[in-house]
Design brief:
This protein is α+β, with helices and mostly antiparallel strands. About 75% of the residues lie in helices and about 5% in strands. It is built from 26 helices and seven strands.
């Protein structure tokens, strides 16, 4: 099909013969598009006339939602009315999946009208409902829709953030189709910023996924978007190759709305080359298709393209009509890019007509909107995107290195096992002829183990004693000595009452620090000397987090740090409440300590198969890889200072590790210097059935 279209371009000029041929293609593709809706409508009608028909049946609701969705870009009023019926039925029977899909359709309806004040809250509600019900399929689709909404309003940073979240969810559930879509949307972010090299990197990923899917229409959609990218990069040969391939596919399968877009892209390729007659021909074909579509966002690009074509052909009056219509439509759906493009075209037209005042008005509008669209935060968001790409590459390289290391370690283990087997055989043969010697060796070995064990215990006791005295001498004696000296100065009359009172805030801070240190010290000392007695029970993680936020709120307020609890509703764990309380208090205290003023700390929880994974994330100073390896070891006493010179004992994190391990969890950290740290730990989930405390 693509070669056939290429032949038309070479042999014919735009005229009536080609138009009539094209009208035949339109009629066929329109029939193909409507046949799906007709099929859905027929199935719906057949279901409704059965004797046992129940409008609130999930099968009926599913058909209604599919039919409503099929009207998008064709008849949004029908979408709205049918979708509302599905919404009412879903709510009536508590069918959460149906309600989520209906909310998504409703959000899309308002989005296509450019009414983001209504679409955004609706999509946010659908997203929350999908997360609450664990409906990952819906969650993925809604994340993509929300990302697009942020993208439409120019908030590239938030759009990128959601696209990346969506990629993580898609990988979790193994959705290659959504993985392709989300990667392609990130590629579009790069392309809009004219960063074609990085855009093509993501398109390589998309094409690899598409080949795996084997969906011709899906691949053709990607090709039409890549054609637009190559057009912007002035690579017209690649642009034309991709658009011809996609057009051939859309015409073969009768994909009406995508065919209109592909024709518009092909017209824009000719427009960039100033081949105005051919550009007009393909814009006209797209315009004919748009008569049966209800897609204002794509129609804006078509109108502005036709305005530029007529301007290039010297037909200023026709150019003015299309540019004004495009500007009106852009304002209607709040399309910032559409207003920029149409304002630029109108400025040129009025300037040529020597209508200076109106030309200046459109020039000012063009400049103001352009400045708004390309503000600094968009550039920052793309740097985040580059960092993400680098991170993914490093992660992939690290995985490969780990696999090699594991393979090497496995070889060593196999070799050691072989040696052990040989030694065992030799030992057995020797000991068979020396039974008495064997008994003596066994007895000697047992005594050696006892001596070794006692030596190890003595060493640990001495190490604990040394560490305790070091902390007491260094971290407690200092603040206490300072307060003692200040009190002596006051009692001796060397400083006055007012001067002494000025040190009260310092005394209060020192006392709070000493109290916190003593609590950690006593808990740690008990674990080292007597072991940890674990008494698990059902605990509310949300209550523990809130109590610790309240406990440390004054310290956080002193540094203007905001703490946000983002835990889901009532996560219940199975652990020792005192231990988890100590862990959260230490991690939250550390986050405050190493976060500069006006920072942000978020506490989140994610439900896993058998555990709750809690995350305490800060925007602090971070730490390098070397420190990350050492902070949880009990052999190293790392004492560090916070952003306001706060003092610590170095016990907190080793204590946290012991508490978490005793409660059958795991703890680890991820950190980037000058960007912040995230501490993770897991707690077993509480089961509905009886659990025995151990």
């Amino acid at each position: 099909m693509s070669q056939k279209k290429h032949c038309y371009q070479e042999l014919f000029k735009p005229g009536k013969v080609v138009v009539w041929l094209f009208l035949f293609i339109i009629t066929f593709s329109s029939y193909a598009q409507s046949s799906e809706r007709d099929s859905l409508a027929f199935r719906l009608k057949r279901l409704e006339i059965t004797n046992r028909f129940n409008p609130k049946d999930t099968t009926h609701i599913k058909l209604l939602i599919k039919l409503a969705d099929s009207y998008r870009f064709f008849n949004n009023d029908s979408l709205y009315s049918i979708n509302n019926r599905a919404m009412d039925y879903s709510k009536a029977i508590g069918h959460s999946h149906g309600e989520i899909r209906a909310l998504e359709n409703l959000g899309s309806y308002y989005s296509d009208q450019g009414n983001r004040k209504k679409s955004m809250p609706i999509l946010q509600k659908a997203w929350q409902l999908s997360k609450n019900t664990g409906d990952k399929e819906c969650e993925l689709s809604i994340i993509n829709a929300l990302s697009n909404e942020y993208y439409y309003e120019g908030n590239v940073a938030e759009a990128l953030n959601l696209y990346l979240q969506g990629i993580d969810v898609a990988k979790q559930v193994g959705s290659d189709r959504m993985l392709s879509i989300l990667n392609e949307n990130i590629a579009s972010l790069y392309a809009d910023q004219k960063d074609f090299a990085n855009a093509l990197v993501y398109y390589d990923t998309v094409q690899a996924i598409n080949r795996k899917l084997g969906d011709q229409i899906f691949h053709a959609q990607t090709q039409s978007n890549m054609a637009s990218l190559f057009k912007d990069a002035k690579n017209f040969d690649h642009a034309m190759f991709n658009i011809n391939k996609s057009i051939a596919n859309f015409e073969e399968h009768g994909v009406y709305e995508w065919l209109a877009y592909a024709y518009q892209v092909k017209g824009s390729i000719y427009l960039e080359q100033k081949k105005y007659q051919w550009a007009l021909y393909w814009y006209d074909q797209s315009s004919l298709l748009h008569k049966d579509l209800d897609d204002d966002r794509e129609k804006i690009q078509l109108l502005n393209g036709m305005a530029k074509v007529y301007y290039g052909l010297g037909k200023d009056s026709l150019s003015m009509v299309y540019a004004k219509e495009g500007l009106f439509l852009s304002k209607k759906i709040q399309s910032l890019q559409g207003q920029i493009d149409c304002s630029e075209t109108l400025y040129k037209l009025y300037k040529d007509k020597e209508n200076t005042l109106t030309a200046l008005l459109h020039l000012e509008n063009f400049k103001q909107l352009s400045d708004s669209l390309f503000r600094d935060k968009n550039r920052q968001s793309l740097s985040m995107l580059k960092t993400k790409l680098q991170y993914e590459q490093e992660k992939e390289q690290l995985i490969k290195s780990n696999k090699l290391a594991l393979a090497k370690q496995r070889s060593y283990i196999y070799f050691a096992i072989m040696i052990l087997i040989v030694l065992s055989v030799v030992t057995f043969m020797v000991r068979r002829n020396a039974h008495i010697q064997k008994k003596l060796n066994v007895e000697l070995q047992q005594k050696s183990e006892v001596v070794s064990q006692r030596e190890s215990e003595l060493h640990e006791i001495n190490k604990t004693k040394t560490k305790l005295f070091s902390i007491i001498g260094h971290d407690l004696r200092g603040p206490v000595g300072a307060m003692q000296g200040m009190l002596k100065l006051f009692t001796d009359g060397e400083i006055g009452k007012n001067e002494f009172m000025s040190f009260i805030p310092k005394f209060k801070s020192d006392v709070e620090n000493i109290s916190f240190t003593l609590n950690n010290l006593l808990s740690w000392g008990q674990t080292q000397l007597n072991g940890v007695a674990t008494k698990p029970k059902r605990i509310s993680l949300d209550k523990i987090v809130n109590s610790n936020i309240q406990l440390l709120s004054e310290v956080a307020s002193g540094k203007s740090i905001k703490i946000i609890n983002q835990l889901p509703e009532n996560p219940v764990g199975w652990a020792d409440q005192n231990h988890i309380d100590i862990v959260i208090r230490n991690l939250l205290s550390n986050a405050i300590k190493f976060t500069p003023e006006n920072g942000l700390i978020t506490i989140e929880a994610e439900e896993k198969r058998n555990d709750w994974q809690l995350m305490i994330r800060d925007t602090g100073i971070g730490m390098n890889k070397e420190i990350q390896k050492k902070i949880f070891t009990d052999t190293t006493n790392i004492t560090t200072y916070g952003t306001n010179n706060e003092k610590g004992t170095g016990l907190g994190l080793s204590l946290c590790r012991e508490m978490i391990l005793k409660n059958k969890g795991e703890i680890w950290v991820e950190s980037v210097l000058r960007k912040g740290s995230t501490f993770f730990f897991t707690v077993p989930k509480a089961e509905d059935k009886y659990q025995k405390a151990s």
